[in-house]
From TrEMBL:
<feature type="binding site">
    <location>
        <begin position="99"/>
        <end position="102"/>
    </location>
    <ligand>
        <name>substrate</name>
    </ligand>
</feature>
<feature type="binding site">
    <location>
        <begin position="31"/>
        <end position="34"/>
    </location>
    <ligand>
        <name>substrate</name>
    </ligand>
</feature>
<feature type="active site" description="Proton acceptor">
    <location>
        <position position="108"/>
    </location>
</feature>
<dbReference type="InterPro" id="IPR004788">
    <property type="entry name" value="Ribose5P_isomerase_type_A"/>
</dbReference>
<dbReference type="Pfam" id="PF06026">
    <property type="entry name" value="Rib_5-P_isom_A"/>
</dbReference>
<protein>
    <recommendedName>
        <fullName>Ribose-5-phosphate isomerase A</fullName>
        <ecNumber>5.3.1.6</ecNumber>
    </recommendedName>
</protein>
<dbReference type="GO" id="GO:0006014">
    <property type="term" value="P:D-ribose metabolic process"/>
</dbReference>
<keyword id="KW-0413">Isomerase</keyword>
<dbReference type="InterPro" id="IPR020672">
    <property type="entry name" value="Ribose5P_isomerase_typA_subgr"/>
</dbReference>
<dbReference type="GO" id="GO:0004751">
    <property type="term" value="F:ribose-5-phosphate isomerase activity"/>
</dbReference>
<dbReference type="GO" id="GO:0005829">
    <property type="term" value="C:cytosol"/>
</dbReference>
<comment type="function">
    <text>Catalyzes the reversible conversion of ribose-5-phosphate to ribulose 5-phosphate.</text>
</comment>
<comment type="subunit">
    <text>Homodimer.</text>
</comment>
<dbReference type="InterPro" id="IPR037171">
    <property type="entry name" value="NagB/RpiA_transferase-like"/>
</dbReference>
<feature type="binding site">
    <location>
        <begin position="86"/>
        <end position="89"/>
    </location>
    <ligand>
        <name>substrate</name>
    </ligand>
</feature>
<comment type="subunit">
    <text>Homotetramer.</text>
</comment>
<dbReference type="GO" id="GO:0009052">
    <property type="term" value="P:pentose-phosphate shunt, non-oxidative branch"/>
</dbReference>
Amino acid sequence: MTKSGNGNPKENAGYKAAEYVRDGMIVGLGTGSTVAFTMDRLAERIKGGLRITGVPTSIQTAMKARERGIPLASLDDVSQIDLTIDGADQIDPSLMLIKGRGAAQVRERCVADASKRLIIVADSSKLCDQLSGPVPVEVIPFALGHVTRKLEQMGGVVVVRDGVKKDGPVLSDNGNIILDYHSGPIKDPQALESEINNIPGVVGCGIMAEFSDIMTVIVGENDDCRILGIKEE
Ligand SMILES: O=C[C@H](O)[C@H](O)[C@H](O)COP(=O)(O)O
């Protein structure tokens, strides 16, 4: 356990992750409310002289980074990312994840895949014994009906995600539709990830089962953080 103690689990996790960032690093910037705290801390460190380049995983994150004065590059501009810090919606004991409540899972997977190391920041409500979904699935609009039928044939319930602040479906930053696939408890996350991602028309789902070998999870509690996975800084 590491003491920080401000009573906000997401803030504790987000701030702790910023300690892993070293001068000169290219840093993947994930999406969500927990990573926003990491960016707050990075912005403070940049004012103190830290030099980094951030690679954002969403338009929202790019906007937040610019507001905070974090220099940015696109994924096209970098050959490798030193460290990516991102959030998650569910984390199982093997460090398999479900991501994508913010509809950013496709870009998040690209950035994670280009990274030497991945730090996931979350509060303890995200820890679970078994992933259970819903699994966000990004689908090209042309294939909406086809993918929906395929997913239903797999036995789950498909819901087109509605916008909270707009009428109609949520569109991802890539202009695609987001489905939430309610599968129930997921016995084999890797198998389900492959099965969903192999449906023609699917751009990417939110199960991320293949990153545990480069991953550290920082779990924020009220007054401290727990570190799971790779420990060295
Ligand atoms: O698409 C969104 C991302 O996968 C987020 O990292 C994830 O939903 C966690 O977000 P938050 O930190 O706000 O709980």
